[in-house]
């Protein structure tokens, strides 16, 4: 018994030791796996950085900036005076940054390019179409519906159409009904005819005229009750009163509603049948608010339905409702669809596609704005409490003051109002603020611009401390920036000519590149009483002639196809870029251009609305440019690590330099 207890104790001891060893081995294995995975992940994150580490070390730091506030610039590392984040270094321009509009430049080794699987594509001209997809409902064409109603009160003795869905032809008999009023009116008509025959040769003209008036009145009553001219002539010839009248089909179509039964009495105007011509139907569809700009009356619509797979019905947009549904945020459109074979049935669900060439998109008019805060010049409803970029069209916000700014998209001023002028006598004997003649010598006053005094002021980018000499702001330590103002003859200080960064980072009295975001500054002119006017950039397009059967055959002038002899058709192509090549930051669109030998240059581009898998290029690229379509996000990440963060995103990341 004692031996058995010792054996069991030894057995339990061995089991416990085995479990402990297994647990320790599992922990060691998991630690090894975790270490290996972390190392692999870190290698994957830094493979581009490791391939270009030596190049980064050789670059010179030109200043330190905040990742969240790129307007902050310091000559040494430290904390951001606004958010207290660690400042990140911004390095000197690399190769390729000399190109106009370049925001960042990255060079990758061959190994880095293979690891990143970089793919490129050459941009060129192509036919672009925008497809708007929606679902619709087939409905009756209201213009092709008709109601068969009782023209006179009476009793329905016979219905020639017994059920709905029956097809009828215009003029076909539908209802046979008895009407006492019709019988009495026929008697009155025959009596008027007999009276006229008796008094036709009467010497009393009043009697003859009265009889003729009675005949006309009863005849008109018969016509109003649906009796035709032919039936009235037959009544006058045969002198037989008909007890019943027939109601005929007013149009050809389908009986879609039947309201009455045989033997039922009806009053004037009561509906008996409803007819509808289904040779043409309506397709009602909803278009969302953001797609409304694409839709126009007259555009072609392709309708498909699961009932007829592989077949398409072609129609046109005939009407766009002038109001928006506030619940669905959509507007309803109506399309006319031919349906001669009656295959489309009312209440049938269909799929619709509206294909619009991009060049058909109407250009929006230039917009004037006014206000006192930061607003977008093209979208006055978009406002901000600080400088920035409009998310709609990448136009910088403008701070409106008592003096209004004016600028074009090319950075040139365009006059749309009058500045301050005075009218001076050529003999210098009289000055006036209005045109006219000199009261002293009688000469005509000449218009001259009023003189102004310029003042240069250095201001803190955060608007904390203005001064008249360049120095550092005592509040935040940032370098003061130069701003030019003028003093008008009335003593009011207003801004005149200023070179302003499109990102509204800073202003300068000289043209050049913004040191914060690396964009070219545009010239802004301030004038009293003048609003801002912005010219929109146009699409880059060309016209060619191509064969519909052989698209590869093209010509720049009208000609015949060299392969089939068909006449070439005129088409419009637009400079387009693949959508995969575009990095959309929310405030601008960035593209990386392959310059060869592993060198990639990031540029901001202005693009039109997306059309399928492409964007039309409006500004920033040329035909033949090779852009990165795959791994461009990795290349952009590398530019973040080498000092391009503030250039592209305003520094949307925190990065600590290793010490």
TrEMBL record:
Keywords linked to the UniProt accession: Membrane, Transmembrane, Transmembrane helix, Transport
Annotated transmembrane regions: 12-33
Record GO cellular component, one term: cell envelope
PANTHER family in UniProt: CATION EFFLUX SYSTEM PROTEIN CUSB
A Pfam family reported for this protein in Swiss-Prot or TrEMBL: BSH_CusB
A Gene Ontology biological process term: copper ion export
Protein name according to UniProt: Uncharacterized protein
Family named by the database record: Belongs to the membrane fusion protein (MFP) (TC 8.A.1) family.
Zinc found in the keyword field: no
Domain CusB-like barrel-sandwich hybrid: 146-275
SUPFAM superfamilies documented for this protein: HlyD-like secretion proteins
Record domain Heavy metal binding: where: 63-90, 423-448, 545-570
CusB-like beta-barrel domain: residues covered: 280-354
Origin superkingdom: Bacteria
Organism: Kuenenia stuttgartiensis
GO MF annotation: an example: metal ion binding
Membrane found in the keyword field: yes
Gene3D superfamilies, per database record: 2.40.30.170, 2.40.420.20, 6.10.140.730
């Amino acid at each position: 018994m004692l031996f058995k207890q010792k054996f069991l104790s030894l057995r339990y001891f061995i089991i416990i030791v085995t479990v402990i060893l297994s647990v320790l081995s599992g922990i060691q294995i998991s630690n090894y796996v975790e270490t290996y995975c972390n190392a692999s992940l870190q290698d994957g994150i830094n493979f581009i950085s490791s391939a270009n580490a030596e190049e980064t070390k050789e670059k010179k730091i030109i200043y330190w900036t905040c990742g969240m506030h790129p307007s902050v610039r310091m000559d040494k590392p430290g904390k951001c005076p606004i958010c207290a984040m660690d400042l990140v270094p911004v390095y000197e321009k690399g190769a390729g940054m000399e190109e106009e509009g370049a925001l960042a430049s990255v060079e990758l080794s061959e190994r880095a390019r293979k690891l990143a699987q970089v793919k490129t594509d050459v941009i060129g001209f192509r036919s672009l179409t925008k497809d708007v997809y929606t679902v619709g409902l087939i409905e009756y064409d209201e213009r092709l519906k008709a109601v068969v109603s009782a023209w006179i009160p009476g009793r329905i003795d016979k219905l020639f159409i017994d059920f709905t869905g029956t097809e009828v032809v215009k003029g076909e008999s539908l209802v046979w009904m008895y009407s006492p009023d019709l019988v009495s009116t026929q008697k009155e008509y025959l009596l008027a005819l007999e009276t006229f025959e008796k008094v036709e040769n009467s010497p009393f003209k009043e009697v003859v005229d009265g009889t003729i008036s009675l005949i006309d009145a009863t005849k008109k009553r018969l016509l109003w009750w649906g009796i035709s001219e032919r039936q009235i002539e037959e009544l006058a010839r045969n002198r037989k009163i008909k007890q019943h009248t027939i109601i005929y089909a007013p149009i050809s179509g389908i009986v879609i509603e039947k309201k009455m039964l045989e033997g039922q009495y009806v009053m004037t105007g009561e509906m008996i049948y409803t007819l509808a011509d289904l040779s043409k139907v309506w397709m009602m569809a909803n278009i969302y608010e953001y797609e409304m700009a694409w839709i126009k009356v007259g555009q072609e619509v392709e309708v498909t339905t699961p009932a007829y797979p592989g077949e398409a019905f072609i129609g046109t947009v005939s009407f766009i409702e002038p109001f928006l549904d506030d619940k669905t945020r959509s507007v309803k459109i109506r399309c006319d669809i031919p349906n001669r074979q009656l295959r489309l049935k009312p209440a049938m669900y269909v799929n619709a596609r509206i294909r619009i060439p991009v060049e058909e998109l109407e250009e929006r008019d230039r917009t004037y704005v006014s206000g006192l805060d930061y607003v977008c010049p093209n979208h006055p409803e978009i406002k901000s409490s600080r400088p920035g970029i409009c998310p709609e069209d990448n136009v910088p916000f403008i701070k409106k003051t008592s003096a209004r700014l004016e600028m074009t998209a090319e950075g040139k001023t365009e006059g749309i109002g009058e500045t301050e002028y005075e009218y001076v006598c050529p003999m210098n004997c009289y000055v006036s603020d209005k045109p006219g003649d000199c009261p002293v010598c009688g000469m005509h006053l000449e218009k001259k611009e009023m003189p102004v005094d310029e003042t240069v002021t250095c201001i803190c980018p955060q608007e904390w401390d203005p001064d008249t000499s360049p120095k550092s702001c005592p509040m935040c330590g940032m370098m003061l920036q130069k701003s030019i103002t003028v003093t008008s003859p009335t003593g009011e200080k207003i801004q005149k000519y200023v070179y302003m960064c499109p990102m509204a980072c800073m202003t300068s009295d000289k043209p050049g590149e913004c040191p914060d975001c690396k964009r070219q500054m545009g010239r802004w002119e301030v004038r009293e009483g003048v609003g801002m006017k912005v010219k929109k950039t146009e699409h880059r397009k060309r016209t060619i002639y191509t064969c519909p059967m052989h698209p590869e055959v093209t010509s720049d002038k009208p000609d015949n196809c060299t392969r089939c002899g068909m006449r070439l058709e005129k088409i419009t192509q637009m400079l387009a870029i693949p959508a995969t090549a575009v990095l959309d930051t929310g405030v601008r669109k960035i593209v990386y251009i392959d310059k060869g030998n592993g060198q990639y240059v990031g540029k901001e581009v202005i693009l039109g609305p997306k059309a399928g898998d492409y964007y039309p290029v409006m500004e920033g690229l040329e035909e033949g440019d090779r852009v990165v379509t795959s791994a461009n996000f990795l290349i952009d990440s590398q530019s973040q690590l080498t000092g391009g963060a503030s250039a592209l995103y305003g520094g949307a990341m925190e990065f600590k330099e290793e010490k």
